[in-house]
Amino acid sequence: MEGSGSDEEVMPMELVASYERVRRLASGNAVVVFSLSGCCMCHVVKRLLFGLGVGPTIVELDEEKGGREMQTVLFQLVGDVQQPLPAVFIGGKFLGGLETVMSCHINGTLVPLLKDAGALWL
Hints:
single chain; alpha+beta; Glutaredoxin; four-stranded mixed sheet
């Protein structure tokens, strides 16, 4: 078990770097979707955004170097209250997952959020 101590020391640094990477991606792009390539809920969110005319930055965590650590950061961000992926950021702020995005779309608040973030020019 000697190795477990060193893993615990390395892991926080990896998570700090992953947190910074998530933060930079979210703040540097109008819309970011953190996704898994085979996730049907992620596919629905991407299709909705594309259908609205948005070109989101998509980060497929299962295809991304450091994706597992980024996914850990996103799990910590959302907690146990909702499905962690897809994780959608609009205008640098965490919006939520599929349920939140669909709720915003249905109640008419999604398009204004996208416009305010500069993702739509309607």
